[in-house]
Prior knowledge:
Elements: H1 9-20, H2 22-28, H3 32-42, E1 47-52, H4 59-67, E2 72-79, H5 83-91, E3 98-103, H6 108-112, E4 117-120, H7 136-153, E5 158-161, H8 166-180, E6 188-190, H9 193-207, E7 218-220, E8 227-229, H10 242-253, H11 255-263, H12 271-289, E9 294-301, E10 309-317, E11 320-324, H13 332-357
Helix pairs in contact: 1-2, 4-12, 7-8, 8-13, 9-10
Amino acid sequence: MKQHGGGDASHRIARISAHLDPHKLQMEGKTSLELQNCRAKGGSSGFKVAILGASGGIGQPLSLLMKMNPLVSVLHLYDVANTPGVTSDVSHMDTGAVVRGFLGSQQLENALTGMDLVIIPAGVPRKPGMTRDDLFNINAGIVKTLCEGISKCCPDAIVNIISNPVNSTVPIAAEVFKKAGTYDPKKLLGVTMLDVVRANTFVAEVLGLDPREVDVPVVGGHAGVTILPLLSQIKPPCSFTSEETAYLTSRIQNGGTEVVEAKAGAGSATLSMAYAAVKFADACLRGLRGDADVIKCAFVPSVVTELPFFASKVRLGRNGVEEIYTLGPLNEFERAGLEMAKKELAGSIEKGISFATK
Ligand SMILES: NC(=O)C1=CN([C@@H]2O[C@H](COP(=O)(O)OP(=O)(O)OC[C@H]3O[C@@H](n4cnc5c(N)ncnc54)[C@H](O)[C@@H]3O)[C@@H](O)[C@H]2O)C=CC1
Ligand SMILES: O=C([O-])CC(=O)C(=O)O
């Protein structure tokens, strides 16, 4: 019997089950890209987004939240483990995005082909007593390989890097893209949104405000003293005692460690990170759509300081980062913090560059 929407019923059912199982696809002799295209026609108009590391602590809630984002028409979930289960689960949500799963390195290229935005939370998290830099030995190689895939399959995509240490993994990504001849500094962004999310929350707590009314710029990088909240520039404008400033700065800088210790060996921030990653990815997509005044903090290739990468407020647009804002007036406490941040950042950036160019 012919069905409305094209194809007979048995073919349509085969197509739907194949979309959930890449192995069935190969048996049918169709490439996953062919299938992706035919499925995408049924989805809503919007952007194509891939999550690399989609089965992890961050990856799973991030997949859930991106499936809920109306700007996403196609959502590719890639990991080296467990993507069939995560994909099956998320794909039952009755939202517009079409979800497809990709398992293992042989499926990386299909996962990346045609993507507008690639979000990378792949890699190991901290345990108590570790610094983010202790993750370098494992995560540097993971990010390098994934970025080589991006260069090959979706060189024009916006890339959001979550994997730690962000202060080094973003420079690694830049070097991989340079080597491949695909580097566009406007499209590479390290995700520091969680620092802003925490800063807004902790400041709101101290001031007795709704966190949604607070906006704290956080600049520098994403580890310890490189996380530099600019409390003198918060919205709404407020002043703090020196005790409040010291307490808030330290709590924001150590927010990640606070979660690592509370989880006691079970990992680091995942739920608040997924929330922050979606907030940031949504801003990138709104920028791509052409919305005006989309401004967020991110760790990007930058000339704001003498360092080649730095986190500050950026304006997101159709080409990615369209404007990077200067730091504005800093008070004495922040100026001292900036010097400490730059010193540590310089070493982490250099470490990433030399890893990728060796
Ligand atoms: N930028 C930020 O603000 C934050 C960054 N992070 C970082 O995010 C990363 C992930 O954290 P979690 O999700 O908690 O870790 P997790 O261990 O729960 O998940 C990581 C996932 O990556 C996958 N993976 C490993 N190697 C891969 C590869 N080569 N290709 C694709 N996937 C691969 C694993 O199979 C796993 O599913 C860590 O490096 C962590 O430090 C965590 C919180 C905040
Ligand atoms: O602290 C960690 O290891 C994870 C992270 O980057 C954060 O929560 O800010």
